[in-house]
Each structure stands twice: as structure tokens, then as C-alpha cells.
Request: fold
Amino acid sequence: MNHRSLALATVAAVAVVAANPVLAAPKTDLMLAVHGEPESGFDPTQGWGEYGYPLIQSTLLKRDAKLDLVGDLATRWSLGDDGRTWTVTLRPDVKFSDGHALTAEDVVFTFETAKKAGSVLDLTELESVKAIDATTVTFTTKAPRITFLNNFAVLGIVPKHAYGEKYGRAPIGSGPFRLVSWTEGEQAIFEPNPTYYGTKSPFAKVTFLFTKDDASYAAAKGGKLDVAAISNALAGDVPANMTRIVAKTVDNRGLAFPMRPNKGEKTAKGAPIGNDVTSDPAIRKAIDAALDRKALATGVLNGFGRPAWGPADDLAWDNPDHRLPDADPARAKKILADA
Reply:
């Protein structure tokens, strides 16, 4: 490892949502500015949907309001006694938005394509995926790995018959929505997929604006948005007729220090590799002890954050006992003096 990361603060996700009067007529169109325009298009095999439901495509599993895994395309899923083989049974009534049936062959094609793509979705542990019949698929991993199950909830299934290089720009899926138009850098418009097997959306049109924070905030203040994700710096001033929602996240911000000394090596871009100051463990420990994480969360993040010590804070595998005390300049000086 060439760098040591120092977690400083966990960022809260902040959004403002239109607060419509109770007696107002139900909205049929929804306008959102929540970031997330995909650089490579709406193609799950290239990473679309990795950090949220892919919207256009269906996944084998999905997460409910409690973040528990439940079936989406899958009606049953089980792990064999070898700890390596997953057997998944699909719904028999699923069609893509172009009317073609979704079968096990599409699932196999999707996972094989995603593995070859080598995008943000890591499928290196997948040894093979096979269609047993039209509604049954088996996945075999190279070694027992229970976390492989998470891939079932993030990889949207693409149609084998309609997949190509331009798929991400004109996607076909079996999810709750279909893409109507996409003006890159500006907006994407969606409407309900008439062939969707699940609960139908109450909205006839959903528009995502790909605007920067300042523009999104201005649009929200002008009453043009229903939902806007905004930066921590702007979150203190809530536009009229909107409600602020602050969500707890594990989005950590921190610093990374070179751990190797400078031996004259450089990266391909000419940047130096290593640092003679931060390669000293005492320096890094002293910085860790002196920094006031609470003050940083309050000042830098405008109060919409909390102190962080690592990427697993508050998760099931976190160990709070391993968190070292901070905001202690005296201890930092002692660390340096004893070095």
C-alpha cells in the first residue's frame, strides 16, 4: 500500500422536497435534480445502477425499505451445500419493454457481458453462469463468497436480442420505467413501462435534470423542482414550500498520505511517488490525534455530517472500540516528541 487514508467526516445526503398542500390535485409529472447522469449511458453492464436501482432494467433481487433483500425477477434463490453454487428461479411472466420475453438466457448474457466489461461491478469471483431452463439460472463462484449475492441486487438484466454498442443510449429493459429521451448534460425523460410486472408508477412522466448544485438550488427556489439533491453548503437555507430531508450515509471524506519515502520515482504523469515527511508513522499518528473531526463536520460540512474514523463506521462490522481519540494537540506533540 502506498497511501494511508485518514477518514475525517461522514457526509449526510441532503435533499429538498416540494411540500404540496394536502388538498392539491395529485401530480402526474415529477421533476428531479439529483445528479447521477451516467457517463457510459444507461447500461448496467457498464456500471449503471451500481449505486442504486437501475430504473429501466430489473434486477434479480432488490432491497426493500429496510434494505433487506427481496425478490424482483427472482421468485426463489438458494445457495448449495458447496457454498459456491447459487440457483435462481425467475418469474415466468416478464417481458422487456419491446415485448420480448425475458428468460434465463438474458440473465446469463448479462452477467457474462458485465464480467468481460470489467466496469465498477466486480465479477471476478464468478466462475460460470448457466441457464438450466427458461426460468432457472445457476451461478458458480470460484470459492465460497456470500457477498456475491449483492450482485443480484445491482446488475440490471439486459436483452440478449437487442444489446449492442449503442445500448446505453437507447436501452430496453423490464423495469418500471422506459427512457423516452436523453439530452446529454441536460436532462433525461422517463415514462412508465407498460409491460412492467410490478406496481405501476403514479407518475406519467419523470424528468431528471443534470444540473450543478447552484442551478438546482435556484430551480428549487423558483418552484420548478419536486426534488433536488443539494450540497451541504446550501442545505441551511430551505426554499419556500419545500422540506429538507437529511439522510444518514457512509459517504466518508478524508485525507490520504504517502507512506513511502521519496526515492526519486515518478508516476506516468510525472508526479513524485512518496514523501519523506508523511512516510514517518509518527507524523501520520500526530495528525490523526490533533485533528478535530467534530469541528470539521460542523464547519466544512455546514453541520450536515458527523465525525468519521473509517469506511465501516456504524455498519454491522464496525468496531467503535478501535477509534482513537482526536482533537488532542497535547497527545500529538507527545507522539512527535517520543518519535
